[in-house]
Amino acid sequence: GWSWKQGSSDPFTGRRDYQVERPLLNQKQLEELGRWSSVTGTHQWRTWLQCSHARARALLLQYLPVLAWLPRYPVRDWLLGDLLSGLSVAIMQLPQGLAYALLAGLPPVFGLYSSFYPVFIYFLFGTSRHISVGTFAVMSVMVGSVTESLAPDEDFLQDLNSTVNETARDAARVQLASALSVLVGLFQVGLGLVHFGFVVTYLSEPLVRGYTTAASVQVFISQLKYVFGLQLSSRSGPLSIIYVICWKLPQSVVGTMVTALVAGVVLVVMKLLNDKLQRHLPLPIPRELLTLIGATGISYGVGLKHRFGVDVVGDIPAGLIPPVAPNSQLFAKLVGNAFAIAVVGFAIAISLGKIFALRHGYRVDSNQELVALGLSNLVGGVFQCFPVSCSMSRSLVQESTGGNTQVAGAVSSLFILIIIVKLGELFQDLPKAVLAAAIIVNLKGMLMQFTDICSLWKANRMDLLIWLVTFVATILLNLDLGLAAAVAFSLLLVVFRTQLPHYSILGQVPDTDIYRDVAEYSEAREVPGVKVFRSSATVYFANAELYSDTLKQKCGVDVDRLISRKKKLLKKKELKLKRLLKEEKLQRQAGPLEPVTPASVLLLTRRSLSPNLLDGSTLKALGLPQPDFHSLVLDLGALSFVDTVCLKSLKNVRGWGIPRKSPGGGRAPVVTQLEAGHFFDASITKQHLFASVHDAVVFALQHPRSGPVSPVSVS
């Protein structure tokens, strides 16, 4: 056991001195004291195959969460808040749906469809209460890069006047977007069913923020053609943004520029009013909706399209369209982009969902979120929608206006349905420049992420490197290739950081059992005769050689040179032994004959050779320099897994000097149990595995070795 003692108190400070005493325990004694036993693995697959009423009900509630929470919905407490929240979100959803459809390269009405079907499907299958599913700028610009590259304007030029057949172009792009949405949904549902929700963990926060910042820059650039009234041919690839910036800006339409500028100023002023009066207003001012209504009325009354050449939204058909099966022949062209969009959309949704869940005290199931988003995109694709995720701005509004559940989402989708059926055609004269201005103003939050550069420079420069590489790769390579390059770089950076970990020799801090790097702590002192070596990362094939080299360097032992000199001296001894045996044999042949046996040869040899020649092959016997320590403590606390290269490196440590037998015979016990695949298991020979560096040092001091270095490991 261990004892606790309370010492005397300091008369000046009143603080008491405490002393904790406990005996030195090795692994075997610790397991006997704690009655260790191996844990038998549970076969979870057996429960998956069980068939019962309870199991069927649990599966139904797991994959259709609305059946679990809707019967217990507190109508009096939550209904009013959800109604107001749903109305507020719908007011934002309308202009954003129209605007983000332009980002996707589609007619605006398909943004309204994408704001209805997926939202209602998520109401049935989602587990987050506060995120607002629907159109989102990053997803829309990713879809737009696909539609504009696979259905460019050049493919729909009319022969007579070289104008673009917009009807055929839009039909082709809608077909591409709906097939893409179905494929994204299939990816997300499949990943969710196989519990692959952890895939988003490979997208670190700096990567996601750098990616969304680059996407916001691309969104900003893509809207310039609507702000300046330019007619640009569709381009995609690494130089697409440079092309948009450098070409045709002098051909701007003045009326369009003035319209966009006025709309932007109005949106900014109303946003400032919202921020200033938010304490006094029950609901925020619907600035986008009011701006759209005012711009539509002015455009219709003044005739902006005919008098000033301002491009407007155009025909918005009333009513819903029937479901259409996707063109499966397009899947091969879309599979890579679909997977990237599926991962990005899920990453955005789950990150926001977990933030709100932590704030309000409930749990979000990442795998069910994948299924819910997948079904939203799958069903939406059948009804001519493009891929969606969740919007941060709408989610914040849904929470701040009293939303408690996804009933708010259902209310907003029903409001959008009314607009699609009856009110959509009223926005036919809405200038596209106003939608572009609304998009640009809403990018403020993502563009403010440029401040991450300063904060990451102070906090973690490796994360800053990931942010910058992600941003630059996304800008130059577009969103799909940029994401792939960013993920590959972040994973390679992890490998690189494990390849070059921090190695240190530990020393004991005076009057404690704490060991720290002697290079960083000036008062830490090495224990005489004992070297304590630590690596900050696990040892595996990528850094095993560096581990061995650094160990030799830190310990001041040139093992390779010692082994080379040792081999040369042993070879000389062998040649001298053969020469003396030959001389002994000649002397015997000159005298009386006597049968030669191995015992007699050994006896005669011992008489003839010097004691140093038969003393063995130790460093001391060979006259070679010996290390100034008798025990080496390897701190393996950072070891998370073991491979064969790691085992060989540890065995090479055994080879310093003469390979020493363990106390029970055989090879070094730690290496033996590592090779057997029972790392820190009951099969360990217990003499050389300790729970702390201090215990290992105490053992090494209690059992000093006069021979070669004794490796001791620390778990």
From TrEMBL:
**Bilayer topology annotation:** Multi-pass membrane protein
Gene Ontology molecular functions: secondary active sulfate transmembrane transporter activity
Q: Which Gene3D superfamilies match?
A: STAS domain (3.30.750.24)
Q: Where is the STAS domain?
A: 520-653
Q: Where in the cell is it found?
A: Membrane
| Coiled-coil region | 563-590
The molecule here is called Solute carrier family 26 member 6
Q: Where are the transmembrane segments?
A: 100-125, 179-203, 253-273, 338-358, 370-389, 401-421, 433-458, 464-496
Source organism, top-level taxon: Eukaryota
Q: Mind telling me which PROSITE patterns this protein's record contains?
A: SLC26A, STAS
Alphabetically sorted, this entry's keywords are: Coiled coil, Membrane, Transmembrane, Transmembrane helix
Q: Name one GO cellular component term.
A: membrane
